[in-house]
Amino acid sequence: MRNAGFAEMIDFTRPGTATYVDADGMIRIAAADVPRFDYTNGRRQLLLEGPATNTATGNSAAFNGSGGSQHSTMTAGQLDPAGGDDARLFTAGPDQGVQCAQMTANFTAATATTVSVFVKAGTSGIVQLAYSFGVNNTSFANFDLMAGTLLRKANCSAGISPVGSGWYRVSMTGLPAATAFSTFYVAAIPDAEVARLPAFEGAEETFYVWGPQVEASDFASSYIPTSGTAVTRPADKAQLTEPVAALLQRGEASVVVSGEKVTPLGTVNGVILGGYENADFAILLRADNNAMVIGYPSIVISIYEAPTPSMGVGVSWDTNGKSGALDGFAPVSTSSTQEAELAPSFLGRNATGYYAQGWYDQLVIWPFRVTDDDLQAKAVPYA
C-alpha cells in the first residue's frame, strides 16, 4: 500500500469558477477545472458540491437601509472576507423603527430555501435574519457575532460559522409561503430573545455585511458572487482515474471514505462513491430516511445525521458477501455479493448527479477484502 497524490487518483473537472476558504480564512476563487481544497472546518479538505444558483441578484452594493422615519445608512468601501473593499457598514437610525439592511431575491413557494450572508460585529454584536412578510412572516434567527453562536430561531433551521478576521457566515433555511421576487432582512436587534423584526429606537448600532446568497437548498453552499443577475455555480466532478477505479472493479476490494458535513443535494439520494447508474454504487446516503447504505444489492449499515458530522465509512466485499461500517461501530454484513460495476467511478456523486456534497478528507482502497475487525478499525473519522 502507498500514498498517491490527488492528480494520480482523481480526474477533476468543473465547467466554471467556484469559491473556497483558504488557510488564512479568506474567500478565494478557483478557476474552472481546479479542485477546491477548503479550510472552512479548520483543516484542508476537498470540497465537492452539486450545482446551485444564487438568486440574490445584487451584490453587497444592493443592500439598502431602513429604520423608521430616519433611514439607516450603508457605508461602502469596507474590507470584506475576500480581501477586497466591497463590504458595507450598516448604521441604525435614531428613531423608532425596524433597524435593518435589506436585499431582494427570487423565492419559490414550498421549496426549502436558504438565506445566508457574511456579517461582522461593529457596535452591535447581535443580528437577526428574517424573510419579508409576503414570503414567510414567522421564520427568523438571532445570532451572537461576538461568541459566534445561534441565540434563537423560529420555524427554520439556522447556523453560524466563522470565516476569519471577525467575520461569520450566518444562514437560515425555511419554506417560503409564496413564489415572489421579494425581500430578506439582516437586522440589528436590541436583545437576544426578541421575535421577528422588532421596532426600537436605534442608537447608531453598527455591523458589517457582505455576500448575500439565496438558494433552493437545505443548507448554505459555498458563496456564489453575483452582480445584477442570478448566477449558477456548476457541479464538481471528481472521477477516479482508470487505474484507481480498476481496484474497485475487482471481485474483492475494500474502501474507506472520510469526510465532514456530507449530505444529499435536495430530495434525491447522495452517492458518496458510485458509478454510472443509480443502482451502481459502493456507498450511498438515502435522502428519504437518512440511511447509510452500502453496495448493490444494498444493505443499510446505519442511520446518519444530516449533514454528517465528521465521519468515516467503509465497505469491503468478495465472492462470499460484503460488509459495511460507520464511525468505528461493528460492521453489518451480508452474504449478497457486490454487483455494482463502478465503471466509471466517482467520489461525491455518480455520473448523472446524485450528489453527496460536502468536505472530503481521505479515500483509501485495498485490492482485497479486509477483515471485519480491520474494517471497523479503519472506518473512523479522519484525525
Count of distinct structural domains: 2
Proportion in helices: under 10%
Helix/strand-derived class? Answer: mainly beta
**DSSP strand (E) fraction?**
over 45%
Strand order, sheet with most strands: 1-22-31-24-25-26-27
For this structure, the CATH topology of the largest domain is Jelly Rolls
Descriptive report:
By secondary structure, this protein is mainly beta. The chain folds into two domains: 149 residues, Jelly Rolls, CATH 2.60.120.200; 180 residues, Jelly Rolls (Sandwich), CATH 2.60.120. Helix content is 5%, strand content 47%. It contains three helices and 32 strands. The mean pLDDT is 92.
Provide tags for this entry:
Jelly Rolls; seven-stranded antiparallel sheet; 32 strands; mainly beta; about 375 residues; 2 domains; about 45% strand
